[in-house]
Structures are given as C-alpha cells and as structure tokens.
C-alpha cells in the first residue's frame, strides 16, 4: 500500500540494530573463559600438594624408586620445591619411601639377575641418588666370594657362546663382557685362564 500523502516511510534500520546488539554482547563477554572440563580445568584448580601426591603414587606404582628419583620426577612437572619436600617427607614418614630398603632390593636383584659387580652396583646407586651410608649397607650383601662366583658364571657363559672361535677372540670377548659388568681386569684374566684350562683338560662345567 502506498504511503499516505505527506508521510515518508522510515528507512529499515533492522540490520543496524542487530549489529549494535552483537557489539554490546561482545563487549560484555569475557575475552577468555576458564576451562570447565578436562585436564586443563584440573590443572587450573588442583592443589599443588594433591598433584605432587598423585605423581609420587604413580611413580611408585610403576616401580620402586629412591627419594632422589621421585624428587626429579616432581621437578620435571614443575612442582614447587617446598611442596615437593613436604610430600616426600610425608611419604618417607609412612614408609612408602625407604632408600635403605630400595638400595638393598636393587643390589640383590642386579647382582643375582645381571651379575653386576660391587663397583657397578655402587655406580648405579650413586646415579639413583642413594646416600653413601645406605649404599654401603646394601653392598655388604655381596661378599668377595659372591662376586667371584658371579664373575666365574659370566666367564663360563661367554666362553660357551664363543666355542669354535679363535682363542684370542674368545678371551677378548670375555674380558669385554665382564668389564662392562664392572669386574677388575686382574680377576677377569685369572678366571678366563682357569676356565680355558678346564676346557682343554675336559673338566669344564657345561
């Protein structure tokens, strides 16, 4: 219908009004809303001590560890040092962290399963941050006779694996294998000579 004479139709300003409403909403809305779900929300709101306890429990569930190893794990996750100390102290008080027991377990298993010498065991305990006192007590489990018996077993195993090869080659491989386990060259040389002699006279243990 045509407009009445003398009256003009007002321009349609609906698009302009919609634009103004959107601008108002944008000004009122926060620039970035905090996460409400998922790991981001947990990290934003979690208590640092609760986070530290969770990390330590997961580490201990996976494998026995020294206090030093656990402290390193907390540092990698950027747990504040004072928080880490409090949590580790509490775990130590209740017996979940026990470096002396850990060292004894490590020495027993590494010596029995891998044939490591006391020298190699000492180095491994040092790498794991075990104190010299706890290390010394744990290493008392391995005496001279135990060490020689383990070394002799390794020599026999290596010589059996290299039968048919040149004598010098067999000796070098035996020296190398036991050297990597931390045994001294004097002990290794004596045991290799004895076991080769036993082979030659038919008294070697198979």
TrEMBL record:
<dbReference type="Pfam" id="PF21981">
    <property type="entry name" value="RecX_HTH3"/>
</dbReference>
<dbReference type="Pfam" id="PF21982">
    <property type="entry name" value="RecX_HTH1"/>
</dbReference>
<dbReference type="GO" id="GO:0006282">
    <property type="term" value="P:regulation of DNA repair"/>
</dbReference>
<dbReference type="GO" id="GO:0005737">
    <property type="term" value="C:cytoplasm"/>
</dbReference>
<dbReference type="InterPro" id="IPR053924">
    <property type="entry name" value="RecX_HTH_2nd"/>
</dbReference>
<feature type="domain" description="RecX third three-helical">
    <location>
        <begin position="146"/>
        <end position="190"/>
    </location>
</feature>
<dbReference type="InterPro" id="IPR053926">
    <property type="entry name" value="RecX_HTH_1st"/>
</dbReference>
<comment type="function">
    <text>Modulates RecA activity.</text>
</comment>
<feature type="region of interest" description="Disordered">
    <location>
        <begin position="1"/>
        <end position="46"/>
    </location>
</feature>
<protein>
    <recommendedName>
        <fullName>Regulatory protein RecX</fullName>
    </recommendedName>
</protein>
<feature type="domain" description="RecX first three-helical">
    <location>
        <begin position="52"/>
        <end position="90"/>
    </location>
</feature>
<dbReference type="Pfam" id="PF02631">
    <property type="entry name" value="RecX_HTH2"/>
</dbReference>
<dbReference type="InterPro" id="IPR036388">
    <property type="entry name" value="WH-like_DNA-bd_sf"/>
</dbReference>
<dbReference type="InterPro" id="IPR053925">
    <property type="entry name" value="RecX_HTH_3rd"/>
</dbReference>
<comment type="similarity">
    <text>Belongs to the RecX family.</text>
</comment>
<keyword id="KW-0963">Cytoplasm</keyword>
<feature type="domain" description="RecX second three-helical">
    <location>
        <begin position="98"/>
        <end position="139"/>
    </location>
</feature>
<dbReference type="InterPro" id="IPR003783">
    <property type="entry name" value="Regulatory_RecX"/>
</dbReference>
<feature type="compositionally biased region" description="Basic and acidic residues">
    <location>
        <begin position="1"/>
        <end position="15"/>
    </location>
</feature>
């Amino acid at each position: 219908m045509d407009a009445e004479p003398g009256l003009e139709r007002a321009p349609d300003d609906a698009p302009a009004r919609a634009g103004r409403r959107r601008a108002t909403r944008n000004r009122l809305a926060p620039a970035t809303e905090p996460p409400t779900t998922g790991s981001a929300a947990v990290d934003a709101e979690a208590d640092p001590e609760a986070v530290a306890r969770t990390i330590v429990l997961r580490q201990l569930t996976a494998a026995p560890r020294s206090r030093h190893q656990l402290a390193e794990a907390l540092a990698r996750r950027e747990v504040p040092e004072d928080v880490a100390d409090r949590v580790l102290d509490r775990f130590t008080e209740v017996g979940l962290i026990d470096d002396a027991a850990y060292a004894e377990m490590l020495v027993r298993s590494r010596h029995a399963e891998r044939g490591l010498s006391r020298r190699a065991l000492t180095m491994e305990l040092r790498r794991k941050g075990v104190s010299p006192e706890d290390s010394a007590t744990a290493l008392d489990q391995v005496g001279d006779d135990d060490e020689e018996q383990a070394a002799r077993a390794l020599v026999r195993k290596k010589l059996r694996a290299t039968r048919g090869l040149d004598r010098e080659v067999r000796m070098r491989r035996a020296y190398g294998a036991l050297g990597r386990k931390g045994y001294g060259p004097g002990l290794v040389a004596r045991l290799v000579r004895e076991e080769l002699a036993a082979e030659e006279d038919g008294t070697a243990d198979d």
